[in-house]
Amino acid sequence: MTDDYFTDREFGAVPRASESIDERLWGGLHSLIETRLDDASFGYRFPLACPDAGKRPCGCDRSAFAFMLEAEVPQIEWPLRPNKLPETPVILDLLEFCARAVGQPVEGSWHGFFDHYHLAWDRDPGLAAFIAEVNRLFARNGLAFEMTPEGRIQRLLPATLRVALMQARFATGDAETDRLLETARLRILAPKHEDRSDGLEKLWDAFERIKTLEPGNDKRLTADAMLNYAARPESKLRATLSVEADALTKIGNTHRIRHSEIWQEPLETALQIDYLFTRLFAFIYLQLKASNRAA
User: Fold this and answer.
1) Which of 28, 60, 82, 141 is the most exposed place for a label (fewest CB within 10 A)?
2) What residues pair up with 48 in beta bridges, in sequence order?
3) pLDDT at 218
4) How do residues 37-71 score in pLDDT, each as one tens digit?
5) Where are the alpha helices (DSSP H) in the chain?
6) CA distances in angstroms from 237 to 220, 229, 260, listed in the order given
């Protein structure tokens, strides 16, 4: 059995471009959560104790679920209502909370007096099934997020950049540059705008440090030496790369990326952040790969 529908096969999947959860998708997610509450899947973390002697688990304690949810996701309103749409980041936090609580209920002995089974929970298949349903709803509604196998929400980048980021491994010879690059790689995948902005900032910080990786004390000369790995010094491409390096440096100094002077222009949309991240990452990766500092 596959997860696709006729329209997916006939016309192709919906583009994963939206970063906002609308009322339709929220209704489906609300139904998914309510179903898991009803079938005791969240009893993995919030078990309901049987009132009989022994207090063996027999379901999901909705009150415990609600109290902990309100404490861990303070912006949420309980009870959840299908006709009242929370903010998208709040819903994403809610889904991560649910992923931490879910397991597959396994029926044990039948307790006739209270008309229920005593339960245990199998964590891995319960989590996998929950993630699959969340991701199917995201995909069918064109949402640019997905839930990872660990139950964390991450943003979907354009396919070419996503593949490059997932495969990139950095070994620049400078621990701080490697740290900045790895932080940038992870932050740009985050759902929150401020985290992605921070990822772009870290990438620009790495860009400035990469200019000094080659031996020497003159930053202009060491930056040129890095470019020489990427293209033959007298070639037209090498000249183009030099122009690009200057343009990227100017962008970093003109916009509110690395600095916060009042005259600097802030980036306003996720698309702008993605564009600049993609452009700078491609430039950096070319130099690091050509100089055997990245895999």
Assistant:
1) 82
2) 59
3) 96
4) 999 999 999 999 998 866 789 999 999 999 999 99
5) 6-11, 23-38, 62-72, 88-101, 123-140, 159-167, 175-187, 193-210, 219-230, 236-254, 270-290
6) 18, 12, 33
Specify whether the CB–CB gap between 274 and 193 falls below 8 A: no
pLDDT value at 1 more than 50: no
- DSSP conformation letters of 146-161: EE-TTS-EEEPPPHHH
Is the pLDDT at 166 greater than 80, yes or no? Answer: no
Q: Tokens 């009893």 appear where?
A: 43
CB 74 within 8 A of CB 99: no
**Would you call 155 helix, strand, or coil by DSSP?**
strand
Query: What's the start-to-end Cα distance of the chain, in Å?
Result: 37
Q: Cα dist. 152→95, 144, 171, 191, 280 in Å?
A: 8, 14, 27, 10, 27
**In this structure, what are the phi and psi dihedrals at residue 255, rounded to the nearest 5 degrees?**
-100, 160
In this structure, how many other beta carbons lie within 10 angstroms of the beta carbon of residue 171? Answer: 12
CA pair distance 148, 160, nearest whole angstrom: 19
CA distance 104 to 240: 57
Q: State how far the Cα of 255 lies from the Cα of 246, in Å rounded to an integer.
A: 14
**Tens-digit pLDDT profile for residues 224-239:** 999 999 999 999 999 9
